[in-house]
């Protein structure tokens, strides 16, 4: 049972669950009514397996850095619960299985997009970007922003502009979300020579970037209403949620308490979840 739990944790389940929620939103927004629950469930399974594979590969590559950081030292590899070889084999198997499921039962486009996201996160971000530039989370965030597009493509077999707008929301949300955590964990990143923005440019500069990105996010979050993708329910929700996020960002900017950074980080998680819930409510209540 402990071994099963170790493999389960290797997939970063909390991150994968959030990705699946975003993918599900894309699926549900791709059509006016839910036409095929089996298709949705099969697509989610394929995306989940590929996402878990990417997370496992990330942990294999980062196992030494994870062992040195408080946030990650309890993961299965640093704890010696799994070997790097067994973790790699597991990642390969579930990644291939996920891709095959998407190819056979969903469509080729979704498989290609999902594998591109896997490669982007597991290899391009983890191997290169993470240690190459303080803009790592900005550039690499595109892979993490893909789930709504994957979900939409699994239903429509197209790359829809509205799906890309959902990707844009997550893409702009990712830097202020992650940089808030990076401020709180800056000493650990510095110890491992990982060039996160607070390490390379200082906390004050990072706080300013968080405020600026949150302002951009405020504007981007309103775009679904502007392009007539959504209606009043979403608009009101987006304005309220973005205003609260901006409040936290400004509070963080003027505060020397790193605990505010974690409060900002925690709210950012609620933000992305609730703004997608608002999109769904608007989509199905106002037609």
Short account of what is shown:
This protein is mostly helical and 287 residues long. Helices cover 80% and strands 0% of the residues. It contains 14 helices and no strands.
Give a written overview of the molecule.
With 287 residues, the chain is an all-alpha fold. The chain has helices at 2-10, 13-29, 37-61, 63-67, 84-105, 108-132, 136-144, 147-156, 161-184, 186-191, 197-201, 203-226, 232-253, 258-285. The chain is flat, with a radius of gyration of 19 Å. The chain folds into two domains: 1-159, UbiA prenyltransferase (Tetracycline Repressor, domain 2, Orthogonal Bundle), CATH 1.10.357; 160-287. The relative contact order is 0.11.
How are the SSEs placed, and which strands pair?
Layout: H1 2-10, H2 13-29, H3 37-61, H4 63-67, H5 84-105, H6 108-132, H7 136-144, H8 147-156, H9 161-184, H10 186-191, H11 197-201, H12 203-226, H13 232-253, H14 258-285
Helix pairs in contact: 2-3, 2-8, 2-14, 3-5, 3-6, 3-8, 5-6, 6-7, 6-8, 7-9, 8-9, 9-12, 9-14, 12-13, 13-14
Provide keyphrases for this structure.
287 residues; mainly alpha; Tetracycline Repressor, domain 2; 80% helix
Largest sheet: none
Order of helices and strands: HHHHHHHHHHHHHH
| Portion in helices | over 70%
Q: What is the count of β-strands?
A: 0
DSSP summary: helix tally: 14
Q: How large is the share of residues in beta strands?
A: under 5%
Structure classification: mainly alpha
Total number of distinct structural domains: 2
The CATH topology name of the largest domain reads Tetracycline Repressor, domain 2
Write the CATH architecture name of the largest domain: Orthogonal Bundle
CATH superfamily of the largest domain: UbiA prenyltransferase
């Amino acid at each position: 049972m402990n071994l099963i739990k170790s493999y389960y944790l290797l997939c970063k389940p909390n991150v994968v669950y959030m990705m699946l929620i975003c993918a599900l939103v894309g699926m549900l927004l791709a059509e006016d009514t839910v036409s095929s629950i089996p298709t949705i469930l099969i697509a989610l399974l394929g995306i989940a397996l590929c996402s878990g594979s990417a997370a496992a590969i990330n942990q294999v590559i980062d196992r030494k850095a994870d062992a040195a950081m408080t946030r990650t030292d309890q993961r299965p590899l640093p704890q010696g619960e799994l070997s790097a070889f067994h973790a790699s084999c597991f990642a390969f198997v579930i990644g291939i299985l996920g891709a095959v499921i998407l190819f056979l039962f969903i469509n080729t486009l979704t498989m290609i997009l999902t594998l591109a996201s896997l490669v982007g996160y597991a290899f391009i971000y983890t191997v290169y970007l993470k240690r190459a530039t303080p803009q790592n989370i900005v550039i690499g965030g595109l892979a993490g922003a893909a789930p709504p597009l994957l979900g939409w493509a699994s239903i429509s077999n197209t790359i829809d502009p509205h799906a890309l707008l959902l990707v844009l929301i997550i893409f702009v949300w990712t830097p202020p979300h992650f940089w808030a955590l990076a401020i709180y964990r800056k000493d650990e990143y510095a110890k491992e020579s990982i060039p996160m923005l607070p390490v390379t440019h200082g906390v004050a500069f990072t706080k300013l970037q968080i405020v600026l990105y949150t302002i951009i996010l405020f504007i981007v979050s309103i775009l679904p209403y502007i392009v007539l993708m959504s209606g009043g329910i979403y608009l009101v929700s987006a304005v309220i949620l973005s205003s609260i996020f901006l409040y936290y960002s400004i509070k963080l900017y003027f505060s020397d308490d790193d605990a505010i950074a974690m409060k900002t980080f925690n709210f950012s998680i609620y933000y992305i979840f609730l703004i997608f819930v608002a999109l769904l409510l608007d989509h199905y209540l106002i037609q």
